[in-house]
Structure formats: C-alpha cells, structure tokens
Amino acid sequence: MGLNILGMGSYVPEQKLTNNDFTKFVETSDEWIRTRTGIVERRMAGWEPTWYMGKQASLKAVEAAGIDVGDIGLVISTTVTPDFLTPSMASIIQYEIGAENAAAFDLNAACSGYVYALDTARRFLETDSSLKYVLVVANEALSRFIDFKDRTTCILFGDGAAAAVVERSDKLFSSHLGSDGSGARSLFARNLDIAQEIAVESDFDSGFPEKPMHQLYQDGKAVYKFAVNALPTAFERAAEKVGITKDDVDFFIPHQANVRIIETAAKKLGVSMDKFIVTLDHYGNTSSVSIPLALCEAIEKGTVKRGMKLGLIGFGAGLTYGGIVMEY
Which of 27, 127, 135, 209 lies 20 to 30 Å from 116, alpha-carbon distance? Predict the structure, then answer.
C-alpha cells in the first residue's frame, strides 16, 4: 500500500535575512557563504510561533486537497523547535484548524523528520481502515536556537512550515529508515543540564562539546561525512525493495542542508544535478521542513507532475537518515 498526496501547502515568514545582513555581526561575506553552502537568503520567524507557521501551511494543504477538515483522522507534526515541551505542536495545530476528529502527536527525527512522518502516516493508514486522511506538517523555528556569534552555523538555518494531506493508495511507495546514535555529539541542542556528579550506567552524556543550553551545535565535517553516504544509501535501500533504480526516478528531493552535500551525493549515485530539486538558496536549512517545502514549490511551479516517481531523502541529528521512493 502506498500514499496519495491530495494537497500540499507551505508558509514562510516575511522577514528575510540575506548573506550581506550577516556581515553586520559576524566576520563573513556573501561570497564566503554562497561558495561554501549555496545559500543566499533565509526566512526568520521573529514573533511567529512554530505552531502558527504549521497552522498556516496546514490550512493551505487542506484547501488544496479539497477535503472536509473534519475527515482528518490524524495529525503528525515534525519539529525540533516546539514552542512547548508539552502540549505537542500537533495538538495545537489540530485545534487551530478545526480537525476535531483527529488524534495528534509530534515526531522528532530532526531533518529526516518528514520522511519518517510520511512513512508513519502510511503505516497508520495501512492498519486502521477507519482512518481516511492524515495531515503531515513540518514546522521549524531554528532561528531561536542559533548562536549568532558562530559564523559556521548561524548562516545555515531558516524558518518555515510545509504540510500535506495524504490518503491510502495503491501507488508506488517504499521506504528505508535508519539511525546512527554514535554521531549524536555531531549535531545537538540541550534542554537539560545533567549534573556531572550524578552517576549513570552509560557514558553517553559525556564527551559533548560545550554549548549553552538551547543553542545548536554542529560539527560540519562530521555531518558532511555522514550525509554524503547516508543520502545514496537511504535511496538505494528503499528503491531495491520495489525493484527500481535511479534511472526510474524523475526527481530527487533531498534535505536542503548544503549544496556541496547534495552535489557529492549526486555523484555517488551517478545522477545529474538536473534531477535534484534544490531550494536552499532562498530558504536555507529548514530542518524537517526542507523536503516538503521543496516539494510543494516544485508542484506549484509545475516541475513535479502527477505520475512522476520521486526520491525523498533526509538526514539529520541523531544521526538519522531515511529515504522514500513514491509516485506523486
């Protein structure tokens, strides 16, 4: 059983931060950022809560799907930047859009979140015949967790949301999800300061680089090394389950972290960059939002059309990775 994407919607804040804006408070330049990341500008949420952006994207997705919001049976929200520890962003969005008959929960797989969530939605639809539609929404406000004194990370991230209404279908769908927790120290943000004198049975909490609470840390070299292998691996393992190859795929939509990662992964796959949809130049890295945001834009532009085969590939903190091969 597969999925049919009935409708998609996206939302990005009005406020833009260009590369030149960063030169006012860190030592950098537009050329330095462009050549190393491919990013030109990104959106900043400012006053807008994470759930608010998710709500706006969800309303657009429901409208595009042409369904009664009361028929949504489940809302899955992906985020690493919730406005509350509890309740979930999904529960707030469920209430705000009027999906009164839906269950709701958040899913945190970092930048792989949307791939994980689509696969989770498919499994719910497969096992519950009473479930008609699932709303999968990604919403991130990474700007609130960035150290704007660290020029290696603050230039990378942006904010926004994207959502899709999905239903069960006999269309092509295959997935592969994975994680390598040994790389957890390469990309993290703390929300708990564990006292050093408290003994635990694992040394996992030791060895993390020093970073203030709630600020994002990234070891760019380690993440790059992981990502350039995770991207092709995730696709190939999903594709082999249904007997298709890279040549059968019309477009690849990878997590939008860094254009160098995408270019290297494309070479490893032996696929032209013409088949990769890239939007990080004007959105930056929006974590779990990046894949659905790129897909939504490609659909709106007419680049992605019904019947096309897509490869959605994510990687992120955890370190997590995941690939989906599906028909739009």
Answer: 209
